[in-house]
Amino acid sequence: MYFVNVAQIIDSAATFPTNWLGHLGKVLRGFPLLFHTIFWDTLCQTMANMEFEDMSAKKDNALGLYMEGIRDGNPLEALNKYTGQRYTQHSTGVANGKQGFLDFFVPFLERTPDRDIRVIRSIADGPYVFCHAFQSLNGGEAKWVTMDMFDTDANDRIIEHWDVISAYVEDTASGEDMVQGPTEPTDLDLTDANKAIVKEYTKLVLTEGRFDFIDKFVAADLIQRSPSLANGREALSTALESGAAGRCEMLFSLIGEGDFVVTYCKTHQDTQDYATFDLYRLANGLIVEHWEASEPILPRAQWGNSGKF
């Protein structure tokens, strides 16, 4: 009989060479098949738990900066708590670094003492975290939908930030609310497959304008939460073909978690360039729900940093 502490082997894995799985395989050749099964099941579950904890820490730091720093009005404390050695900024009008954040948000907090800020959904993928938020300021005087993406360092602290801010529209073309809908990722095992579907959709349909492919990617009964578009695949196809929904010129980033996939693109409509986040929910290999935030790219003199991308 073999008496082996599986957890101890897993805990010691960090001291193994880079190809430690290969070394473990050699070690385990002499053990019975039952042990192999128990070991690998335990190892896979432990690694999954470690990945979940890692993603959770990244989300916690992004949400902490957002909620404690902005909603609760403690920007310096939040910066020291949640950001890394650098903080590169792509938000329009906000300079790089902690001081740039403070220079922008301290006056903002003074102007908006009443802040109802809610992060509706968040996803994490590798070092990146995405947040979808609703803001109502000064008793509803201004309402915004924001989509933010954060990059994190090896310690899960925030080191870079991109965002797009759109006005919250009460009366949308579809009748759907701009931020409602499912909030928690599901189908985590389909993350890579769903990302591949959205990447191909963005390339073929949104960038190359091959609208005859749209039924390959989008469900007929698409729930549309972009304020200017009606529900359904047919309405989306019509808007894309007419140019009313703009054209993707550059896919800057694509991240996903389960059934949620996010793209960040440079888009163009009429004579204006935009920074655009699209959030998709997929089911059975098709896009079934869509949220969007889009912001005009201002002249370079007004950026305050290196730009939206």
Describe what this molecule looks like in 3D.
The protein is an alpha+beta fold. The chain folds into 2 domains: 1-168, Nuclear Transport Factor 2, Chain: A (Roll); 188-300, Roll (Nuclear Transport Factor 2, Chain: A). Helices cover 35% and strands 32% of the residues. The protein has helices at 6-11, 20-28, 33-71, 75-82, 97-111, 191-207, 214-217, 233-242; strands at 83-89, 115-125, 128-137, 142-152, 158-167, 218-224, 247-257, 260-269, 272-283, 286-296. A 5-stranded mixed β-sheet has the order 1-5-4-3-2. Strands 6-10-9-8-7 form a 5-stranded mixed β-sheet. A hairpin with a 5-residue loop joins strand 4 (142-152) and strand 5.
Question: What's the topology here?
Answer:
Blueprint: H1 6-11, H2 20-28, H3 33-71, H4 75-82, E1 83-89, H5 97-111, E2 115-125, E3 128-137, E4 142-152, E5 158-167, H6 191-207, H7 214-217, E6 218-224, H8 233-242, E7 247-257, E8 260-269, E9 272-283, E10 286-296
Parallel strand pairs: 1-5, 6-10
Antiparallel strand pairs: 2-3, 3-4, 4-5, 7-8, 8-9, 9-10
